[in-house]
Amino acid sequence: MRAEVSVSRRWVVKIGSALLTNDGQGLDRAAIAGWVEQIAALRKLGVEVVLVSSGSVAEGMARLGWKRRPKAMHDLQAAAAVGQMGLVQAWEQAFQAHGVHTAQVLVTHDDLSDRKRYLNARSALLALIGHGVVPVVNENDTVVTDEIRFGDNDTLGALVTNLVEADLLVILTDQQGMYDADPRSNPDATLLSHARASDPALVSMAGGSGGALGKGGMATKLRAAKLAARSGAASIIVGGRLPEVLTRIQRAESVGTLLTADESPMAARKQWLAGHLQMRGVLVLDEGAAKALREKGVSLLPVGVREVTGNFSRGEMVSCVDADNQRIACGLVNYSADEARKIMGRSTDAIVSVLGYADEKELIHRDNMVVF
Ligand SMILES: Nc1ncnc2c1ncn2[C@@H]1O[C@H](COP(=O)(O)OP(=O)(O)O)[C@@H](O)[C@H]1O
Ligand SMILES: N[C@@H](CCC(=O)OP(=O)(O)O)C(=O)O
């Protein structure tokens, strides 16, 4: 299993507040430099990395001289706004030393649950990765309210893993991994090396809430691993202070706790796509496109579409049928119904001249499509 992890090509690395801020004493720049050095080395081996960095509230508290995590939402928001400045500065500076660009990406729950915004966030993150930039993601704490907060970045890390279809979610924390009981209150607890994320026995082993600075605790990390498994990704919960921790994961060393998915990424994603969304429209394909989708599983380009029915928006689910109305596939569409009608039957190059702009060149990308 560890060997499979070592060949994974896209990682989301989530770093918790306690770890990043030296238990609240301000950003641990030496630790940050160490992780960045490892990430730079991973990139040279062809591993793409998206960072999910907590610590805005904790760093804001340190900057404002607050000893305790505030309870009031406006104070949390204020601390997050102050701290986020320090956070991105620290990451940017550390990556600059390796000639790597970073990008600040702040998201809310709405961004990832709304279909259109989901696609937008996805294409922006994939574009950043494609340009060799390391996205540094956090929750947009200053604009979210109580009910819609992810609250803990473990969940955010898992959703980003689903979003960019990463193979691996690495959760760096202040313990060596997941134990069979909370090691803070059970000194005899033993470290779990490998389990299935779906194993029901794990739930009672993960203690409740997190430390003084973080929010999640082990329960949210376990939940995150289950969420990541929905798109087939494995998760590793591991001590972020372990020397060369990321490099060792890449070398298939048995560090931390590996939580694996029951299904392959493709099977998991297709199940997710097929089970979660309502059809909003139909695209009738020409013979060539129908054959290409059925036999080669390629993306659907506008040129292969003859007719568009329904009134869908970008990001919604549509079904693809052949001229005899036989269902071929379904998937998340990159253009609205009106746009699709304008560009159907046209070559990809014509999208800009017809619409005046272009999103993706595909009408439905094959990663967002299930072929029946
Ligand atoms: N079974 C367990 N194994 C390891 N840690 C656990 C377990 N149950 C609860 N915990 C607690 O979870 C804490 C890590 O969560 P948290 O404080 O939220 O960290 P982070 O800021 O890294 O997200 C650990 O310090 C530990 O006390
Ligand atoms: N968005 C928040 C993260 C919430 C949080 O505390 O997460 P974590 O430490 O990962 O459990 C922040 O940056 O402070």
CATH architecture of the largest domain: 3-Layer(aba) Sandwich
Beta-strand percent range? 15-25%
- The helix/strand class is alpha/beta
Count all strands and give the number.
13
N-to-C SSE string, H for helix and E for strand:
HEHHEHHEHHEHEEHEHEHEHEEEHHE
Q: Might you state the CATH topology name of the largest domain?
A: Carbamate kinase
The count of domains is: 2
Please state the average pLDDT score.
Answer: 90
Fraction of residues in helix: 25-40%
What strand order characterises the main sheet? 3-4-2-1-5-7-8-6
Bound molecules: adenosine-5'-diphosphate, the ligand N[C@@H](CCC(=O)OP(=O)(O)O)C(=O)O
**What is the CATH first-level class name of the largest domain?**
Alpha Beta
Major sheet: 8 strands, mixed
Q: Output the CATH homologous superfamily of the largest domain.
A: Acetylglutamate kinase-like
**How far from one another are the termini?**
30 Å
Given the C-alpha coordinates, what overall shape results? globular
**What is the tally of helical segments?**
14
Keywords:
globular, Carbamate kinase, 2 domains, single chain, 372 residues, binds the ligand N[C@@H](CCC(=O)OP(=O)(O)O)C(=O)O, RNA binding, binds adenosine-5'-diphosphate, PUA_sf
Brief account:
The chain has 372 residues and is of the alpha/beta class. It has 2 domains: 2-269, Carbamate kinase (3-Layer(aba) Sandwich); 277-371, PUA domain (Archaeosine Trna-guanine Transglycosylase, Chain: A, domain 4), CATH 2.30.130.
Structure explained in plain terms:
The protein is α/β, with parallel strands linked by helices and 372 residues long. The chain has 2 domains: 2-269, Carbamate kinase; 277-371, PUA domain (Archaeosine Trna-guanine Transglycosylase, Chain: A, domain 4). Helix content is 39%, strand content 19%. The chain contains 14 helices and 13 strands. It has helices at residues 2-6, 17-20, 29-44, 56-64, 73-96, 109-113, 115-130, 153-163, 217-230, 245-250, 265-276, 287-296, 337-343, 350-355; strands spanning 10-15, 48-53, 102-107, 134-139, 168-173, 194-196, 234-239, 257-260, 279-285, 305-310, 317-321, 327-332, 369-371. Strands 3-4-2-1-5-7-8-6 form an 8-stranded mixed beta sheet, sandwiched between helices. Strand 11 and strand 12 form a beta hairpin. Helix 3 (29-44) packs across helix 5 (73-96) and helix 8 (153-163) runs parallel beside helix 9. The longest helix is centred in the first third of the chain and has 24 residues, at 73-96. The two termini are 30 Å apart. The mean pLDDT is 90. Residues 16-19, 173-175, 178-179, 181-184, 205-207, 210-211, 214-218 line the site of adenosine-5'-diphosphate.
